[in-house]
Each structure stands twice: as C-alpha cells, then as structure tokens.
Specification:
Elements (H helix, E strand, L loop, with lengths): L28 E8 L3 H12 L2 E6 L8 E8 L2 E8 L5 H9 L2 E8 L3 H10 L4 E10 L2 E9 L5 E6 L12 E2 L11 E10 L5 H12 L2 E6 L10 E8 L6 E8 L6 H9 L3 E9 L2 H10 L15 H5 L6 H7 L2 E5 L2 E7 L10 E8 L9 H15 L3
Parallel strand pairs: 1-4, 5-8, 10-13, 14-17
Antiparallel strand pairs: 1-5, 2-3, 2-9, 3-4, 6-7, 7-8, 10-14, 11-12, 12-13, 15-16, 16-17
Length: 383
C-alpha cells in the first residue's frame, strides 16, 4: 500500500454526495500542491517554522534532477511541493518572474491517470502532460495533466502500484529541524481568481471537462461593501473532496481584492488555499506564536456574533482575541480566519477553517472579511 493512501481518510466517504456532479473521473482527493518559488530551501524553512509542516522528500542535483530543486513538506494529509529553478532560462523561472511565488500545480489523486487525461481532453481540456509512467525501485506512478485558468494546471496522479515515499526521483528528506505540527489536517478548498467575465467560462470548464457541479453561487449582493464587490461560483466533484470556488470582480466604486490580485499576479491564478483543522483555537494560537500574520477583524464584528450564529462550543472572547470569525448554515457552524499574503506581492494567502457540521463558506462573514481586506488595500495604496 502506498504511504499516501491515507489521503483518502477525509470527512467525506467515497459515496457520491453531490448528485449533480457526473464524477466520471473520479477524483479521490488532493494529492499535492506545487508552488514555484524563488528559493525553495528558504520557503521550506518558512512553512516548517510558521505552519508546522514536516520534511518528507527532496529532489535536486543530488538525485539527478538537473533543472530544478523540489522540497516536499507534509502535515497530516497535506503535501506541499516547493520548486525552484536552477537556471534563469527555465519555464519555472519565467513563471516566478511573472507571478512571484505561486501555485502552479493542483495535483489530483485518481485511480487511472490515463483515463482521467483521455476523459478530460476529449471534453475540451487542453493537454499539459501526456500520460507518463515514472519508475524507481519502489514501483511506478502514472501522471498526466491539463491546463486550467491562467498558468495553473491539474496533474492527475495514479499511485496504485507505488510503495515509495512520494514520487520516483525523490529521496527521503532527513532533517533535524521539524517543528511540531500546528494541527492542519487536509485541504478543504482552493480558490481561483479570474478576470471579469471569465467566472462562468471556468465554472463551465469544470462542469463540462471534469464533471463538477455548481455547489453554490454568490453575486455582488452577497459579497460586497460600500467600495467593492466580487462574484463567485463554488464547483465541487461528486464526493465533495475537491472544491474550487472561482471568483471574478464585480463593479464597485474602488478596486476590489480580485482586481488587486489580478494586477499584481499579472493574470488569473490561485488566490488562496483553505486548510482544515479540528481545533482552530490551538492552530491559530500556535501560528501566531510562530510569526504568521492574519487579517484584522473589525472589533464590532463580535457584537452580533451570538445573535447571528447562536450557541457555539468556543468562548467568544477567545475567538475575538485571535480574530477568528464564525458563521452558521442549516447543518452546523464553521470557524475561519485568513492570513495576510504570504509574500510581498498582495496575492496568495491561506485560510484556516474548522467545520462543525457546516458545509458552506462563511457567507455571513463576507462583509467583515472584505472590510478587513480593504483596510489592507488602503494601507498599500491599492484600493
């Protein structure tokens, strides 16, 4: 059994819980997320120190990789791959020059990578990577890939016949420095920002080429303030393990966070990675101690939380101190908080989320979240 098969132990079972999704692939979970970064060694140290990731695997000159170096980090079911180029004349270097440190690959775990490639390209997806068999002494992995919004790609990973640590070409990354985890468990969802008028196009892409269903839609009445607004469609696969909200800007008096992202990212891309925990108070307390910066929530936000969400298990005073927001839907409630951008460009950030029954995305928090982001934009002079 592969050492990564534990990825399957999500809060969802294998059954199809969103009947509108065709699920012809099907997708078993998020296999890994790969970021192209300017200095993978230093980025790895940051994610270990600040987020509590652990060393897993390494590929570079020492393993026969001549054009790049990659560090693989893990925490519970999350795998982050940080890749940096070894030369300036490299597509990886071009990606970093244009976008800064950014998500390039959202890898999806499948039973049959060749079939996933065949099904998606037959439905109109543009090929990124033909089905390729990669082998070493631990067996073989099959990977294939397609393009999606901007320069982002999906790679399908089939690892049924692999017993190794991560992928062929990687060796164990042994490090004496492995700070304790912060309680992050799995990727809940990943958000893509696209330009005005493209949201419906990419929602249709996920429906037509990957069999996703539209779980929920938000318009500019749901997500707006006095100054800015956005629209969003949340796309999900049939078992609910893969959820991709797609955002586009809406008309407003000033520049929205989506427009700011598009400007500094220089095109569409992954705006944020939402990672789940089962104890958000512990997780955020630890991450704050380690230097992670979070958005400031307006103090008056907490004046109406009890009236809006009812009884919760957590102490409201503790949530207020940490800046954790709360929202409720028909199935329970959730707690969430957003980091500031994790690089100097105001682009990619992380969301930390704890679901206590809720399947939604914190609609009741949108206004407060937007106001927090607008305060940051005003400080940056980009609102």
């Amino acid at each position: 059994m592969s050492k990564l098969t534990g990825i399957a132990d999500y809060q969802y079972g294998l059954e199809k819980i969103f009947p509108d999704a065709e699920d012809f692939l099907p997708l078993l979970g998020t296999d890994y997320v790969e970021l192209y970064v300017g200095n993978a060694k230093q980025a790895a140290h940051y994610y270990k120190t600040a987020f509590g990731f652990q060393s897993l695997a390494y590929a570079g000159l020492e393993t026969g990789m001549r054009d790049r170096t990659s560090y693989v980090l893990k925490q519970d079911k999350i795998r982050l791959v940080l890749t940096t180029p070894l030369h300036s004349n490299s597509p990886i270097a071009d990606h970093i020059k244009k976008h800064g440190d950014a998500v390039k690959v959202i890898a999806l775990w499948v039973d049959d990578a060749e079939a996933a490639f065949r099904e998606t390209t037959a439905r109109g997806a543009k090929a990124f990577m033909e089905p390729t068999i990669e082998k070493d002494e631990f067996g073989e992995v099959v990977r294939s890939g397609i393009h999606t919004y901007g320069d982002t790609v999906h790679i399908f990973v089939e690892r049924n016949n692999y017993q190794g640590l991560f992928l062929p070409g990687y060796e164990a990354w042994l490090s004496e420095y492995n700070p304790a985890p912060t309680g992050l468990q799995y990727i809940d969802h990943m958000v893509g920002n696209v330009t005005l008028g493209e949201m419906n196009q990419w929602a249709k892409f996920y429906h037509d080429t990957m069999g996703f269903a539209n779980l929920i839609s938000f318009d500019d009445k749901d997500i707006s303030t006095q100054y800015s607004a956005l629209m969003s469609k949340v796309m999900t696969n049939g078992n609910g393990r893969i959820k991709f909200p797609i955002n586009e800007p809406a008309f407003g008096l000033k520049k929205s966070q989506i427009e700011e992202f598009i400007e500094f990212f220089e095109g569409p891309g992954c705006q944020h990675i939402a990672v789940a925990t089962n104890d958000i108070v512990f997780t955020i307390s630890e991450m704050r101690k380690r230097g992670v910066e979070f958005l400031h929530v307006p103090g008056n936000y907490y004046d109406t939380v009890s009236d809006r969400v009812g009884e919760i298990d957590e102490q409201l005073a503790v949530l207020k101190e940490l800046g954790i927001m709360v929202d409720r839907d028909d199935e329970g409630y959730l707690l969430q908080i957003f980091t500031r951008p994790v690089e100097d460009r105001p682009t990619m950030f992380f969301e930390i989320i704890q679901r206590k029954g809720a399947k939604s995305f914190g609609k009741g928090n949108f206004k407060a979240l937007f106001e927090s982001i607008e305060a940051e934009q005003e400080r940056r002079g980009t609102l």
